[in-house]
Design goal:
The protein has about 575 residues and is mainly beta. About 10% of the residues lie in helices and about 40% in strands. The strands form eleven sheets. Strands 27, 29, 30, 32, 33, 34 and 35 form a seven-stranded mixed β-sheet that branches. Strands 2, 3, 5, 6 and 7 form a five-stranded antiparallel β-sheet that branches. Strands 10, 11, 13, 15 and 16 form a five-stranded antiparallel β-sheet that branches.
Length: about 575
């Protein structure tokens, strides 16, 4: 019995002792695994960028920058002292965004659409940041007529003034908002970010609008009522190049009032094209031209002119102000005519007396799919004049959305231009770029073309853009929030590459500049340099002397560290 008891005791001791040992080892392994799987957190304080006071009840959200459709954190509100703690799912570069009443929606250290991502790693799973948040800014004002009476339902358009960062040469962004005046002629453009803006107003005299709508024949219109308001830029300019720039800082409000004066409207007499004169029943069809004002965005921001009469194939178009217009007809195959109206133009014009443009047919040569919407011409001497191409592929040769298969294509691509010199820009494809131009009936220098009459132009394109990435440091530490600029060696020469590519460094000093046209560049970084006017050649020259020259080949992926310069 004793022996049996002792044996049983020994077996019990070995069995349960082994189990307790296994359990302890399992708990130790779990502890080790837990210690190797750090929790990732973004912590910090949100403060008013003007007063530096904390911003309570501010909603914070984080999203991975390299996966816009990927994981997003839950929203967390700051406490009364502006503190927050946002747990995130993994290591990586996280874009942190703040939302609070009375403030703009903003990413960390945001400038002109660029911001600093918060980079978390296994070695540094938590980062504490100071988040300055800008209060809302606004522009307000009143629109009055020649009798100092309010102009109701005037359309006020806000346009941001930003450097041209994209390869199609157009400002990004452009239109930032619109508003209509109330019965007192007042308007407000609220919730604006700090930046530079221009304001435009378009309106019609109420008495002229009533007179035109009650008359079917232009001959019956009272000349004293046949007037218009020109599109007007603050503080009263009719030329966009003379518009004033309004600079807003966080929490500021600026007043922009307008005083509109009427001028005589211009009438344009148009004949219906012969190709669309009659229907299958032998009756003239109802056809109206499309008259598009050419603006700095290359599109129609102006009001549509009044069609006053359609008699025996003739159209009388009234309500035109001095400016440049594109006239096209339905079923015209994309062909159009440019009309130039000046302050000295007669009050009644026909198409031949106002025609000012030249027609340029376009062909694309290269291994890429190119559509008309991707080709833009910008007047070198007046960059406010932007002309998009038009047209489509010939039947049977079109790709999706009417794009062209470039190599061996036949097409109806074309553009109507004023005589002059233009830079040619190609956009819409992340890997395709323009290599050169060739022309018949026009002069080509690099990426520019000079036209005096009708001509044909071939755009030679290829693929293989480059990427530049790396880290910027300042005084031995990562340069956080630095402005990184890739300046073409030919900057300032319109016939060459003119696009300046930019980025903002993240919390580890990293940056990336994708989709760069191959060529020679100088890379610079300016520590917190977002207030530096690098558009000024004298200012830029000082930074270029200490930049890094880069010769980018097709398809290159360059890693480049750079020392940031003081602002």
């Amino acid at each position: 019995m004793r022996l049996l008891f002792s044996t049983a005791s020994l077996l019990l001791t070995l069995t349960f002792g082994g189990c307790w040992s296994c359990l302890a080892q399992s708990q130790d392994l779990k502890a080790i695994k837990t210690s190797k799987a750090p929790a990732f957190h973004i912590t910090g304080t949100v403060v008013n960028s003007v007063t530096q006071s904390p911003v309570p009840r501010c909603r914070m959200t984080a999203m991975l920058t390299n996966a816009p459709q990927g994981p997003t954190s839950d929203s967390f509100e700051t406490d009364e002292s502006g503190r927050f703690d946002v747990p995130v799912a993994s290591a990586g570069a996280w874009r942190l965004t703040a939302h609070a009443r009375g403030y703009i929606v903003q990413a960390l250290d945001e400038h002109e659409g660029f911001s600093s991502a918060i980079v978390l790693t296994a070695e540094n799973p938590t980062l504490d940041v100071l988040f300055p948040l800008s209060p809302n800014s606004s522009i307000f004002g009143a629109v009055l007529d020649e009798a100092n009476e309010p102009v109701r339902q005037a359309r006020v358009t806000l346009q941001s003034v930003a450097p041209r960062d994209n390869d199609n040469g157009q400002p990004t962004p452009a239109v930032r908002g619109q508003a209509l005046t109330d019965d007192r002629g007042h308007y407000e453009l609220p919730n604006l970010s700090p930046g530079d803006y221009r304001v435009e107003v378009q309106a019609n005299p109420w008495y002229a609008t009533a007179a035109q709508s009650s008359s079917n024949q232009s001959a019956n219109a009272d000349p004293s009522l046949d007037v218009i308001y020109q599109p007007t830029w603050f503080p009263g300019a009719t030329d966009p190049a003379s518009a004033a720039t309004i600079t807003l800082h966080g929490g500021e409000s600026s007043e922009a009032d307008f005083h509109l004066l009427p001028i005589a409207g211009i009438h344009l007499h148009l004949s219906t094209p012969a190709a669309v004169v009659s229907t299958s029943e032998g009756q003239p069809p109802l056809r109206f031209p499309q008259i598009t004002p050419i603006t700095s965005a290359g599109g129609a921001l102006g009001s549509v002119p009044s069609m006053l009469s359609t008699v025996q194939g003739q159209v009388d178009t009234g309500g035109l102000a001095p400016g440049l217009y594109k006239v096209s007809w339905p079923d015209s195959g994309g062909h159009s005519t440019l009309i130039q109206i000046t302050a000295n133009s007669p009050r009644s014009m026909d198409l031949s007396s106002g025609a000012a443009g030249v027609h340029v047919s376009l062909k694309v040569d290269g291994a890429a799919v190119i559509g008309a919407e991707q080709i833009t011409f910008i007047d070198v001497n007046n960059p406010e004049n932007v002309f998009p191409a038009s047209g489509a592929a010939s039947p049977g040769r079109a790709g999706r959305r009417g794009n062209l298969q470039a190599r061996g294509q036949s097409s109806d691509l074309s553009v109507d231009l004023l005589p002059g010199r233009y830079s040619v820009h190609l956009a819409g494809s992340p890997d395709t770029y323009l290599t050169s131009l060739s022309a018949t009936g026009a002069e080509v220098v690099g990426r520019t073309v000079t036209v005096h009459g009708d001509a044909s132009l071939t755009l030679h394109v290829t693929s293989g853009r480059s990427v530049v990435s790396g880290f910027a440091h300042y005084q031995g530490k990562p340069s956080v929030g630095a402005e990184v600029l890739l300046i073409p060696a030919t900057f300032g020469e319109p016939e060459s590459i003119t696009t300046v590519r930019r980025d903002q460094t993240n919390t580890d000093g990293s940056y990336q500049l994708p989709e760069i046209i191959p060529g020679q560049y100088i890379l610079i970084a300016i520590d917190h340099g977002w207030q530096v006017n690098w558009n000024d050649p004298a200012t830029l020259r000082g930074y270029l002397l200490h930049g890094v020259p880069l010769d980018l080949k097709s398809g290159a992926n360059i890693k480049q560290e750079i020392a940031a310069q003081a602002p």
